[in-house]
From TrEMBL:
The record's note on its domains: Domain I is involved in oligomerization and binding regulators, domain II is flexibile and of varying length in different bacteria, domain III forms the AAA+ region, while domain IV binds dsDNA.
Single Gene Ontology MF annotation: lipid binding
Signal peptide: none
Record gene name: dnaA
Naturally occurring in which organism (per UniProt): Dialister hominis
Family: Belongs to the DnaA family.
Region (Domain I, interacts with DnaA modulators) location: 1-155
Entry's Gene Ontology cellular component terms: cytoplasm; plasma membrane
Record-given protein name: Chromosomal replication initiator protein DnaA
Keyword DNA-binding: yes
Length: 546
């Protein structure tokens, strides 16, 4: 395998699988060397460090696993963030390991803040042609061991294998700008932590950026959350395009984890900032309480002053006028004061029917970042991390078995892992594949289980209500069709992990996905209001999950 055939292969892969990254790849990246099992990629100096970190920490892993799968070779990708010239020869960005932790990257940054100065060409003679126009080439980054504050870090990239290659021989892939313009600079931990400023919801210290496993399904949300937290530490990095940050996706995929991670990060690096983290329910309840006690000033004092307001599950915001008005005013005031607002929801702002238009547009005015169900790789890493943390010996075949069957909801994945560990402890048995299959048979049917589909759900509901599928899928308005139609929509949305409203719109042959949103909310309300509806839904759910 040589450098350029590997590179071309990666380019083809990126173009066909992640075409949205193509532009950035083409403009900013090029292969530098393939030395042993290390592929070094360089970025030009215009690529923000934040995106370099994303490339090094998120996307490289995906490329590595692609190489492993297709070429059966364990390659590590290093990203050399090529920066403009430096005044002193003592500083310079070393390669960012594809597996570097956030802390590693931060240390790397510390060596990288020096103004430009004229200096020699970036590559040794006979090396790869510079991607920069002649005369505009940035100078090389000089490393000096004596002055290196982090001598244990990896050596600079190996340029010895470089062969000349003209730019048009290499189609350059690019990485999409997932969190625009966030330059990544060194946060410094304060010497002594000040008093904790968190209010309301307690923060789980385990939920950090380090413990969040990220990849293609969640990297936009992860990167944006990290960027927001980093901007708190270094306000120069603040990107107003990301305020508010709105993270959405189905249940159990780590949205709340990311909110905790932001709080933990700020608390670690900038504890003097005030961070208020609440659920939408807390917000609504406190508002109602404040109105009843004639204490709305206290409420406003609390909610309109924090540097960061994080609100979880905003789809549950109440629909009272007073709540809507208060959210609107709180939002506007924080926004005007350039304070940060981060929200999560199980759907996009425009899909939250109860929200009036002006709130929907406020919530959508920053970055709306999706989280999708995890893929097999992410699930495997999460399982391995859990097992390692608890000192459990989880054989690879068990990891494979669980990750390939439960890979749509991390909460369920964790539940399966916890049950398995618990049963093994109670029975005092080692965890083997047959043991795991038996222990998890409620969660993973031994026959492999039928994958639940919208059609199966509709059939089951039709049986229950004595109507036909055609009637459910028609536009007929009699109640005897509307009820099973709405219940089918509700069950499909809740039992098929990751299914989106637009996908349900198509399955149910509706013109507009808001019909599905409305149906789900309607059924949710009915379940709360009416015990017999709840019983029917519970029964159908049980049958469908069998
Ligand atoms: N990518 C991930 N890496 C590590 N742990 C994760 C990841 N995604 C989710 N988890 C874990 O899964 C569990 C559920 O996550 P979380 O509560 O953040 O989900 P959520 O999207 O907020 O769900 P809901 O919408 O139901 O509130 C948590 O224990 C969380 O730490």
């Amino acid at each position: 395998m040589d450098l350029f055939s590997l590179w071309e292969d990666l380019v083809t892969y990126i173009k066909s699988n992640d075409s949205e990254y193509s532009e950035m790849f083409e403009l900013h990246l090029y292969p530098v060397s393939l030395s042993g099992s290390v592929l070094t990629i360089s970025t030009d100096h215009t690529l923000p460090k934040y995106q370099v970190a994303w490339l090094a920490n998120v996307y490289s892993r995906k490329l590595e696993s692609y190489i492993l799968k297709t070429k059966n070779q364990q390659i590590t990708i290093q990203v050399d963030n090529y920066r403009p010239p430096k005044i002193t020869p003592n500083d310079g960005p070393g390669p960012v390991s594809a597996h570097a932790s956030a802390k590693d990257m931060e240390r790397e940054k510390a060596r990288n803040v020096v103004p430009p100065a004229p200096s020699p060409a970036p590559f040794p003679e006979g090396g790869i042609p510079s991607p920069f126009p002649e005369g505009n080439e940035p100078a090389p980054v000089m490393e000096s061991k004596a002055a290196d504050p982090f001598p244990e870090e990896a050596a600079p990239p190996d340029f010895t294998n470089l062969k000349p290659k003209s730019a048009d021989e290499v189609a350059l892939p690019s990485i999409q700008d997932v969190a625009q313009g966030s330059l990544f600079e060194e946060p410094k931990k304060p010497e002594a932590k000040k008093a904790k400023v968190f209010q309301s919801n307690p923060i789980n210290e385990e939920y950090t950026f380090e413990t969040f496993v990220h990849g293609g399904c969640n990297d936009v949300a992860y990167s944006a959350a990290l960027a927001v937290a980093q901007a708190a530490v270094n306000p120069k990095l603040t990107d107003t395009n990301m305020n508010p940050l709105f993270i959405y996706g189905p249940s159990g995929l780590g949205k709340t984890h990311l909110l905790h991670a932001i709080c933990n990060y700020i608390h670690e690096y900038k504890p003097e900032l005030s961070v208020l983290f609440v659920s939408s329910e807390t917000f609504t309840n406190e508002l109602i309480d404040a109105i009843q006690r004639h204490a709305t000033n206290d409420f406003r004092q609390k909610y309109r002053n924090p540097d960061f307001l994080l609100i979880d599950d905003v789809q549950f915001f109440g629909s009272r006028d007073s709540t809507k008005m208060e959210i609107f005013n709180t939002f506007n005031e924080l926004f005007d004061k350039k304070k940060n607002i981060i929200m999560t929801s199980d759907r996009t702002p425009s899909d939250i029917e109860k929200l009036e238009d002006r709130l929907q547009s406020r919530f959508s005015s920053g970055l709306v970042a999706p989280i999708s169900p995890p893929d097999y790789e992410i699930c495997s890493i999460i399982l391995k991390n859990r097992a390692e943390k608890q000192g459990i010996n989880l054989p690879d075949e068990v990891v494979d078995y669980i990750a390939s069957h439960i890979n749509t909801n991390v909460r369920e994945l964790e539940g399966a892992f916890n049950s398995l560990v618990m049963i093994a402890r109670i029975k005092e048995k080692p965890i083997t594949l047959p043991f795991a299959m038996e222990a998890l048979k409620d969660k993973i049917p031994l026959d492999g289980g039928n994958t639940l589909t919208v059609d199966i759900i509709i059939d089951k509901v039709c049986d229950r209500y004595g109507v036909t599928k055609e009637q459910v899928l028609s536009n007929a308005r009699p109640k005897k069709y509307v009820v099973p139609r709405q219940i089918s929509m509700y069950l499909a949305r809740n039992l098929i992990p990751g299914i989106s409203f637009p996908a349900l719109r198509d399955k149910f042959k509706r013109k507009d996905h808001t019909t599905v949103v409305y149906a789900c909310e309607r059924v949710e309300k009915e379940i709360k209001r009416d015990q017999s509806t709840k019983a029917v839904i519970d029964e159908l759910t049980k049958q469908l999950k069998r």
